Amino acid sequence: MNLYNYFINNNGSKIIKYAHYFPIYERYFSRYQNRPVTFLEIGTGYGGSAKMWKYYFGPMARIVSIDIRPECKNYEEEQIAVRIGSQSDRQFLQGLLNEFGPFDIVMDDGSHHHDDINVSFDFLYPRMARDGIYLAEDLNGGYWSKLGGGLRSENSFINRCKGFVDEMHARHTIYGENGDETVPETNITRTTSAIHFYDSIIVLEKTPYINKQMLQTPE
Ligand SMILES: C[S@@+](CC[C@H](N)C(=O)[O-])C[C@H]1O[C@@H](n2cnc3c(N)ncnc32)[C@H](O)[C@@H]1O
To answer: 66: CA distance to ligand 1 center in Å?
Structure first.
């Protein structure tokens, strides 16, 4: 089943995507096909993408799509739950967790404002499945002040993720010498196995346990 094929032949509700996203989706999402995955889409748009995810993940998937526009409720159907609220409203997000449980995948295609992207990530990432995938897209706005970004802006999710790369390596920083700077361990250090940067997409892979022993064989 090829996601791009589905998209290119879509004659139903509108879907808006950059072409180079499709192979990225397949790379991280394919292991969930035909599994009981709980998928959160932030940004329902015209409802076409939620249908695409339903088709892609198969009959056991639960697609939850959120948007601030009340009319998006019309896009609900079997397997697709639409909830109206803002991705930066923590109470609303907690309500989703209460209703649907921890998400296996979170895909942020919402306001694209980095204030909102940050709130959603900070709230949902620690609360999602321990082996989950968090994907934020259309991050090109991270270079624009009108979307809360800027090349060296600390608010840009792209720049925050550059810092997460250092947090991922925190345990190694203590072995430096001559006053080398160290990085404190964080939730990212303990739960993130990989951070992938693409043009306008970042994917974080979670893991319940990371074995970081240095091994040597034979003894
Ligand atoms: C780019 S569109 C989504 C496109 C859709 N996912 C697709 O692939 O076709 C972005 C959507 O995010 C919604 N949105 C904007 N601000 C939001 C917020 N704070 N919380 C949730 N959704 C928001 C908009 O109403 C719009 O429908």
So the answer is: 8
Q: Do residues 25 and 57 make contact, with C-beta atoms less than 8 angstroms apart? A: no
Atom of ligand 1 nearest to the CA of 86: 20
Residue 185 to residues 9, 12, 156, 170, 182, Cα–Cα distance (Å)? 46, 47, 21, 5, 10
| Per-residue pLDDT at 1 | 60
Is residue 27 in some structural domain?
yes
Question: Is 181 part of any domain?
Answer: no
Q: Which residues contact 86 (CB under 8 A, 6 or more apart)?
A: 68, 92, 116
Residues 55, 1: Cα–Cα separation, whole Å: 9
Residue-wise pLDDT for 106-135, tens only, equals 999 999 999 999 999 999 999 999 999 999
Whether 113 is catalytic: no
Per-residue pLDDT tens over the stretch 140-157: 999 999 999 999 999 999
Pocket perturbation via mutation, ligand 1, pick of 41, 63, 92, 109 by most ligand atoms within 8 A of CB? 109
Q: Is residue 172 part of a domain?
A: no
Write down the pLDDT at residue 212. 85
The whole domain housing 69 covers 3-140+190-206
**Residue 26 placed within a domain:** yes
Give yes or no for a contact between 83 and 64, defined as CB atoms under 8 angstroms apart.
yes
Residue range 168-179: mean pLDDT, rounded: 90
Q: Which two tokens stand for residue 167?
A: 């947090």
Residues with beta carbon inside 6 Å of ligand 1? Answer: 15-17, 41-45, 48-49, 66-69, 86-88, 109-111, 116
